[in-house]
User: What shape does this take?
Amino acid sequence: MEKHDNLDSLTEEFRKRYDGMAQLCADAERAGRWNTEEDGSMEGYAFAALSGAILSLIVSDGNVGERETDYLNRTFGFDYTVDDLLSLYRFSARDLRENAVSNVGDAVRTLRASDEKAAEAFRALLTLACRIIAESDDGLLEEESDLIRQLTGAAE
Assistant: This one.
């Protein structure tokens, strides 16, 4: 029960921090530091990179559990099933993993060019999301630990 409570509090912390990042993105757009006509929503851009990284982490070992699927859905507002994620793994796990690391690095550099605080908020969210998924997994394999290191390293 304690692990579940901790995950619930981490998920709540994620939502609060995400709201803070979304506000920083909106502020950067209003101040003209982000070109929405060319680049779309700054928050949408950050969300795509963040959720792609976490999806790659979940499917990286080919073993998708109910609990990590539940926390993915609760954290990001998705409604994936275990079968949905396993299908994703079968069709695109290699591409997801390869692209997630470079996408995270690109996202941090792009966000940093517009707003340093938004970039730092993104990095903190990535680290927190990795922790949530790692703690919700029934056992973290070396491949998953390696991907967490790569993702958080790319965000430096």
About this structure: The chain has a mean pLDDT of 88. The helical segments are 2-30, 36-39, 42-59, 66-76, 82-114, 116-136, 142-154. The chain is about 85% helix and 0% strand. The chain has one domain: 2-154.
